[in-house]
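Supplementary notes for students who missed Thursday's class. We covered one full example, reproduced here. Read the sequence, then the structure, then the short commentary at the end.
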Amino acid sequence: MPTWAEAGLWGSLGGAALVVGAAVAWWVPVRRSVVAVIMAFGAGVLISALAFDLVEEAADDAGVLPAAIGFLGGAVVYVLANVALDKRGARHRKRAGDEQPSEQEQNGSGMAIAIGALLDGVPESIVLGVSLLGGSRVSTAVIAAVFISNIPEGLSSAAGMKANGRPARYVFGVWGGIALASGLAALLGYVLLGGASATTIAVITAVAAGAMLTMIADTMIPEAFARTQVLTGLVTATGFLAAFAIHRA
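Structure (token representation):
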């Protein structure tokens, strides 16, 4: 299989987890407390992958200062984009209850939620694509983290969409579209950066990592804490340890 196609395949696999989560939320009655526990675990898994597979490698390849600047830059860009989307109704896009506004309550919120979900998924897809540059293989820990964290993301957000009366064609249209976009982002990350230096790739990886960590803090952990509360830290730590074990293995 051509490497560019492999990049697209890995990105699509990560995005497909969102569809799996949405399908579970649509057809299986899952308690919000269960969703919150899975969300906390997924957050821990993703944080571990960021620390040991992305930021550490970026610092090794580009140096600590460029990696740090890229990391903070990704966080700032994500926050600015998120603030703009919040004002249009996407603030609670990962909440499983009725916090999400309906289209009647806020016109255009459906599109904002869809774009927000895409914003959350693109950085991790780019990371999967660029990780294949130079003949490398996708990190097992990273792909596991993306897949494990995307299931509760899709589950929680789709449950919120359903609770606010959004139809199945909207819910699965959003997540199916994001799965395809994830594959495309990974493919483009590989193709467009094929001639880039190791330093450039490392900085871009750091940018994506910064955006991903900010997403975890802004959208995943609040939903987890809303239900698990005092147990949130413990479950998140368990997810972190599980991903660390995969990394070391």
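Commentary. The chain has eight helices and no strands. The mean pLDDT is 83. If anything here is unclear, bring it to office hours.
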